[in-house]
């Protein structure tokens, strides 16, 4: 089942309830900072398990204690409910 791209207004309403997330270059974006690399990598491992269960994978990077996550649904050509759902679960970690 393919996801549908959400309207800009729907996305803005939804991210108002997602602490720290913003729209950057058409994607949901958030930067995370941890005490050290091990904690950052542990967080990424937890996100990887969530993403695999959802079959929806982030665009992300890690440099030492920083993790940057961008969420978009490629087959919808934009942000979908899948991205909002994953962002919410990431915040709950």
What does this structure look like?
This protein has three helices and four strands, in the order αββαββα. Helix 2 (37-54) crosses helix 3 (81-92). A four-stranded antiparallel beta sheet has the order 1-2-4-3, with helices on one face. Helix content is 41%, strand content 23%. The mean pLDDT is 96. It has helices at 8-15, 37-54, 81-92; strands at residues 22-24, 27-33, 59-63, 66-71. It is an alpha+beta fold and 93 residues long. 22% of the residues are buried.
Please supply descriptive tags for the structure shown above.
41% helix, 93 residues, 4-stranded antiparallel beta sheet, alpha+beta, single chain
What is the percentage of strand-forming residues? 15-25%
Spatial ordering of strands, largest sheet: 1-2-4-3
Order of helices and strands: HEEHEEH
Principal-axes geometry comes out as: globular
Low-confidence stretches: none
- Indicate the structural class: alpha+beta
The helix content is 40-55%
The residue-averaged pLDDT reads: 96
Major β-sheet, in short?
A: 4 strands, antiparallel
Gyration radius over CA: 13 Å
How far apart the termini lie comes to 27 Å
Helix run count? 3
Count of DSSP strands: 4
């Amino acid at each position: 089942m393919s996801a549908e791209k959400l309207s800009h207004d729907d996305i803005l309403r939804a991210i108002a309830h997602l602490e720290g997330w913003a729209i950057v270059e058409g994607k949901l974006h958030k930067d995370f900072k941890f005490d050290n690399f091990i904690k950052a990598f542990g967080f990424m491992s937890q996100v990887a398990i969530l993403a695999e269960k959802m079959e929806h994978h982030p665009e992300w990077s890690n440099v030492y204690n920083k993790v940057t996550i961008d969420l978009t649904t490629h087959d919808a050509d934009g942000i979908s409910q899948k991205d909002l759902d994953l962002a919410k679960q990431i915040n709950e970690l």
